[in-house]
Amino acid sequence: MNARQPAEDHWAGLRLTTRARIGLGRAGNSLPSRRVLEFKAAHSAARDAVHEPLDVADLNDQISDLDIEPALHVHSEAGSRSEYLRRPDLGRRPADLSHLPDTGADLAIVLADGLSPRALADHGRGLLEALLDTLAPRYSLAPPVIATQARVALGDHIGEALRAQTMIMIIGERPGLSVADSLGIYLTHLPRAGRSDADRNCISNIHPPDGLDYTTAAAITAALVDGARKLGRSGVALKDTSRDQLTGSDARILDG
């Protein structure tokens, strides 16, 4: 009797084009053991990315050779990681900003742990370097700020305290079952406490080599900064078109 040949995997080619779990197959009434183990590994990686604290000293060491002032540190009102996850409101408010200088700088850059400190540890230095290469020749920069137990809105308090015209917040995005180390950039023009999500622009999915690369993310950010300065505000009225043209372009400003 001939041995039973394994069924042809018709999904193999398509599976190479996406991180989504497609065409997983079946073993009786369940999934194949390999797919179950892959899911459990991805779930564990996502949990670890959320709970592992940011090593602030290590991040400081990573960025110490960049042409920028020494980083400052801000902690939110969340006293622990557990409290941060249970009380998002505390992550939006700073514990103390008295040590931040009044800079009047064009730009402030915040490096925040967010929901994936791992993402900031893995990609923060590379993304910051790309942003500096793109923006530093054209704009004055406040000292960078490392923010821990941070939500996005914490950046508005920091930008206001620094008296920066535009705030750029690099933050670890919520891990998923396909990506646990993705960064996002949130840009707010004229940052101040009480700004809403409608006042911000977001660039997400920054995690080379599978996600957006640092250079492209920096180019998009620069286009949004230029557009925000022309328009006088950021958010829903400001749209990026830099990825629509091979040479890049300024952000498109909408009158409405």
Can you tell me about this structure?
- The protein is α/β, with parallel strands linked by helices and 256 residues long.
- It has a domain at 51-212: Ethanolamine ammonia-lyase light chain (EutC) (Rossmann fold), CATH 3.40.50.11240.
- The protein is 34% helix and 15% strand.
- The chain has helices at 12-15, 33-51, 56-63, 81-86, 88-91, 117-135, 154-162, 214-231; strands at residues 72-75, 107-112, 145-148, 166-172, 183-189, 200-206, 238-239, 252-253.
- Strands 1-3-2-4-5-6 form a 6-stranded mixed beta sheet, with helices on both faces. A two-stranded antiparallel ribbon has the order 7-8.
- Helix 6 (117-135) links the parallel strand 2 and strand 3.
- The protein is globular and about 65 Å long.
- Mean pLDDT is 88; it is low at 245-250.
Report strand %. 15-25%
Sheet with the most strands: spatial strand order: 1-3-2-4-5-6
Give the N-to-C terminal Cα separation: 74 Å
Could you give the count of β-strands? 8
Considering DSSP H and I runs of 4 or more, what fraction of the residues is helical? Answer: 25-40%
The main β sheet shows up as:
6 strands, mixed
Secondary structural class: alpha/beta
The CATH H-level homologous superfamily of the domain at 51-212? Ethanolamine ammonia-lyase light chain (EutC)
- The average pLDDT value, as a whole number, equals 88
Q: At the third CATH level, what is the topology name of the domain at 51-212? A: Rossmann fold
Compute the gyration radius: what is it? 21 Å
- The number of helical segments is 8
Question: Do you know the CATH architecture of the domain at 51-212?
Answer: 3-Layer(aba) Sandwich
- Helix and strand pattern: HHHEHHEHEHEEEHEE
Globally, the shape reads: globular
Uncertain segments are 245-250
The first-level CATH class of the domain at 51-212 is given as Alpha Beta
Catalytic activity: ethanolamine = acetaldehyde + NH4(+)
Pfam families: EutC
Protein name: Ethanolamine ammonia-lyase small subunit
InterPro entries: EutC, EutC_C, EutC_N
